[in-house]
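Researcher: Here's the sequence for the chain we discussed earlier.
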Amino acid sequence: MIRIFLVGYMGAGKTTLGKALAHALGISFVDLDWYIEERFHQTISELFHIRGEAAFRQTEREMLHEAAEFENVIISTGGGTPCFFDNMEFMNRQGQTLFLNVAPEVLFRRLRIAKQQRPILQGKSDEELRTFIDEALAARIDTYRQAHYQFDAGSLESRSQIAQSVQKVRQIMGV
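Model: Thanks. This is the structure I predict for it:
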């Protein structure tokens, strides 16, 4: 039975690499944010806005526990998921955890392009975005590093880079 949790900052490539790895292993892929949105028929932004962060984080925790019951699955978590409650410790007990580590300048490049799809980033200047990434990453990095494995996910820009990354992750994790 395989159960892998992908953790890392937004824009690290959890969904991109997770889908490709799940496909290569012939198992299911679950993006926790999508799972939550499907269950509650609201976007993550709407849930945050309507319920507030504390209630959202509790819901996120409950959905993480639910998804962690699945077998033969790769679960891509939200960037903040590991940092609340005992979520990181829980994931470490329930399966294998992989931290997708990406340099802040690569995150900036990726998130700058995707700003409009991420409400928390909308309206930020380049300088504000850099500061936001640096501060959030600094606050979360110690939690992310508690994962069983770490992988430099800075090269996920092409199909060949994604395929190479899948092979490297499989070697690192023995899957």
